Amino acid sequence: MTVRDDGIADTLAAMGPRLRAAREQCGATLTAVSCATGISLSTLSRIETGRRKPTLEVLLQLAKAYDISLDELAGTAPAPAAGPRTPMPQRFGDDKAVLPLTRYVGGLHAHKHVLPAVDAPPARPRQVSHDGYEWLCVLYGRLRLALGEQDLVLSAGDVAEFDTRTPHGVANAGPGEPVEYLIMFGPQGERLRPRTPPAPGRGAR
Fold this sequence. Notes:
Blueprint: H1 8-25, H2 30-37, H3 41-48, H4 56-65, H5 70-74, E1 90-91, E2 97-100, E3 109-115, E4 133-140, E5 142-147, E6 150-155, E7 159-163, E8 168-172, E9 179-186
Antiparallel strand pairs: 1-2, 2-3, 3-9, 4-7, 4-9, 5-6, 5-8
């Protein structure tokens, strides 16, 4: 007897990239997710790269960590109901709070980060690199951005954009107050596209 899979194989094949996109939308590293869920780093990595199929227990843990439904992970979620849905902030290591601002998985998405106050400026933040492109805007406080060999301190209103294949890391430049910033992230290298022409007499610099 032949058993029809009705797209199950395709759904499972897409699960790894969807989980990765959901994690990146939260601004979390594999290490942070491993610490928060108790799932080993190697297991998470193998699932995201498609070398291992996730169990239902693992999917439930990750769906809860990423504040996303199983239907959304499987790509079978119905259209959202009318009216706004308030996203829940998530926490991944060092008490950093991440508030997703977009509800879909994949494509250009946004989230807000809040780093707690520190007593003294920290050591140079640990850097990571991965596919994608990021646009970052500081809303409040002072943010230290370690980008490749550069060290930048950004204040409210400052913006930075970069290819995330460049090693990068952030920390509260402190001391004494939290720092809030917005991130727009394109996991496939998607970028913001300015459409407003320059004002008369103000050409591109």
